[in-house]
Amino acid sequence: MYESGTFLFSNCIRQVDSFMMIKPIVFTLDISASFWPISRESYPPEFSPIFGEQSPFQDVLAHLSDDDFDAPTIIASEDFRFLATSQAEERGIWDANIISQPHSWSDSAVLLDAVLQATNDPEAIILLAPVLHIKCSQQAFKAAVSAAIDRLQKGEIIGLSSQASQSHFEIARAAGTSGADRPFLRTVPTSAQTDIAESNHWTSFTLARQKDLIAAFEEHAPELLTLCKQTANGAAMLETTIENDEGDDASRPTAIAEILRPTTTTALDGDIISLSDWASIWNAMERDNNGVAKLGDITAVGCRESLLHCDDDAMQMVGVGLDNVVAVATKDAILIADRDRLEEVPQAVAQLRARNKPQATDHPRCHRPWGWYESLIMADRFQVKRIMVKPGGVLSLQSHVHRSEHWIVVSGTAEVTVGDEVKLVPENGSVYIPLGTVHRMANPGKVPMYLIEVQTGTYLGEDDIKRYEDIYDRC
What we know:
This protein has 475 residues and is of the alpha+beta class. The protein folds into 3 domains: 8-273, Spore Coat Polysaccharide Biosynthesis Protein SpsA, Chain A; 288-354, no CATH class; 369-469, Jelly Rolls. The protein has helices spanning 56-63, 81-90, 108-118, 138-151, 163-175, 190-201, 210-220, 222-230, 234-244, 251-259, 278-284, 345-354, and strands at 8-9, 13-14, 21-27, 73-77, 97-101, 125-130, 133-135, 158-161, 205-209, 264-267, 271-273, 293-295, 298-301, 307-310, 317-320, 325-329, 334-338, 365-368, 371-378, 382-389, 397-399, 403-411, 414-418, 421-425, 430-433, 439-442, 449-457, 466-469. α5 packs antiparallel against α6. The chain is globular and about 70 Å long.
């Protein structure tokens, strides 16, 4: 098992003029509260369609998924490994290797383990690539990677960043001190540390030889390196390491940035934008002459310097006279905030959580290994859901103590098990599952299958499920 909230993808880029292989390792931080309500704990921002139909996760894959790249290895949290697989498949990546992990923050042990396992060649070049918003063509990105490789010298770690990050790096470099052999920027004034971590590591991609990255851990985290090297099975080792790691969750990502800080940078012909909050989205999006960025079915009258975002096709968002405002609407929640006070959004989410509001953590569309469901109507003794089962998707064999269910297939064909009976239910067909009856649903077809589920009973919570069999190992 590996820690969650960090997602790593490992590919190979083959240089035409040599046998050198570059191994990208892509990861992300846990910033779901900053992107509420589009993103929740159950649906992190890297998988959310913040910029339209494609998620930032898929955008990174798009820059790393042509003929020059091998199939990726995706290290994802246990909760989201199937979502990562599904979104990778939507990008045409069917042979990804998935590694799961249990926690919700980025950890040095996971990244080090990925570096150690990436290749058996210590001279091989590693590309560390966080899930950021890349505003350039795939060709420009590859050209910048090639340029960085040409500059790579022994012992160096090169940051690939946008022009805007270059000046921050030079300021940070001037504030830092160099080690005896390798000039890692580790000792800097406290006021500059945040700037360095944000603008120099987490807003850039990083290139270095495998042995130079390992040397960084050897210099700054030797105990961790020893433990990783001694463990043949990374699962047991990483759980122990994470449990014994000191410091709070917020300090751990900074520790990684401190260990693997670039010693120099090279510029990308485009922008690399850190997905930190809604202000970063406003900066990344195209804006009209009044500085208004719009995504969704939006009408803006007399608005300026604002972001209007609506992810529900059935909803009309209208802004009138808004100035310096972020307005984000989903099916079940709306955010209206001063663009200069977006750092307070997590505080609002914390208040929702304290009041036990489901909108604090649960996304209106709940993703599962077999597909997704969303609640259309929730009342005292009944609930109506829309369910999508992807081709080949199979729900667990299960029963309920407190509810019965009616299924109506509205698109595709369902294979339904009720007790000892297994039958195909076509479009417009229906089936009834009495309370306590063992049942299962699957999609044997080649296209997504949609159905409407009507639940009735005294308790309709998702924890009223007893599983007997599950192809996704959730029993």
